[in-house]
Amino acid sequence: IFAEEHIPNTVYYLWLLRQMAIFYGCERDEETILEVRNKLATDALIEHLFRAANIDTLVLDPAYPPNSECYTPERMGQLGRCRAVKMLRLETLMQQLILQYGDFDDVVDRFSTAVSRAREDGFCALKSIVAYRTGLNIMEWSKDEAVASFEEARDEANGWEQFRIAHKPLVDFLLHIAFQHAAELQLPLQFHTGYGDSDTDMRLGNPLQLREVLERRDYQGMRIVLLHESYPYSQLGAYLAAIYPHVYFDLSYTIPFVDKLEMLAFTRQALGVAPASKLMFSTDGIHIPEMHWAGALRGRSVIGQVLDEMIEADEIDEEEAYHLAQQILHDTAYAVYKL
Question: Which of 44, 178, 236, 331 is most enclosed, with most CB atoms within 10 A?
């Protein structure tokens, strides 16, 4: 996200260094923290952090980073002594199939089969990063248009072991197939929204771009989760969760890398607009153990502070605050992902 020389000057990074120094019992500088951290075996490090974070269930995306670069969800669950479930990333599946098969109909059939079997194959949800690729303004395309787009993708992928799919007619065409299955199976689908790397066109990462999908009557069985509090479109994302029965809003307390004041702001916006039964906590800690731990610390702190403010404002009482916290930190995710 940031150029390396600017990272030490971000408030989030400075806060994280302080928390890690406290956790590892050392001085608050990068070299000392890394020295102490590196004395721990990887397994012991994960066990230590995850138990301190008091995580009950991990919902992981095994497509990023790939298993060749990190532990599997199953192993993460073992080390953290918690449950671990996984999601199926649709664009990664598309890329794999396009690299393997040269016939459009073959790719479509195999993609459709894989999505329809997702729950049987142990996935609790689907995930799309189309916001990164061609935008959330997902359109309807004819088969001929999708085939032409497929041929372009095949030409680009030819001779490569990996490639980045960003061919809108093809991506949108396959996503609509996934949406049909998700609606029929009542399988949740996560959308990356808002905050991302520089290859994201933020204009097309606005969750309002999903209107055509949200309005489709035949997709109402698909529970849609808007990730990363749609930052900086947090109020808009919370609004969508409030007015659409099948839309839920993810509050992420590691990524985006913003300070506590920003986290308080988007948490207030979400709770001020949407029911807590539509909100769910996350870290987006990816493959860095400290990120899961830090997100758990930060999330509980921020949610607790916002609820305390609401008690002070005479909006809710203490018992109601505990109930709302339980929904955000546990119950909503368990209901949506059928955990």
Answer: 178
What are 85's strand-pairing partners?
A: 59
Q: The domain containing residue 145 runs over which residues? A: 40-336
Q: Is the peptide bond before 256 cis (omega within 30 degrees of 0)?
A: yes
138 is a domain residue: yes
Q: Which of 283, 286, 304 is nearest to 295 (CA)?
A: 283
| Per-residue pLDDT at 3 exceeds 80 | no
Give residue-wise pLDDT tens across range 106-165: 999 999 999 999 999 999 999 999 999 999 999 999 999 999 999 999 999 887 877 899
Instruction: Give start and end residues of each alpha helix (H) in 210-337.
Output: 211-215, 234-243, 260-273, 289-312, 318-326, 332-336
For residue 319, the tally of other CB atoms under 10 A from its CB is: 8
Whether the CB-CB separation of 253 and 283 falls below 8 Å is answered with yes
Query: For residue 4, what are its two tokens?
Result: 């390396």
pLDDT for 1 equals 58
Q: CA 41 to CA 28: how far, in whole Å?
A: 21
Strand partners, 189: 126, 224
Look up the pTM and report it: 0.95
Contacts 24+ apart (CB under 8 A), 1-7: 1/197, 1/257, 2/257
The domain that holds 195 is classified in CATH as 3.20.20.140
Contacts of 55 (CB under 8 A, 6+ apart): 80, 82, 292, 296
- To which residue do tokens 């590892």 refer? 24
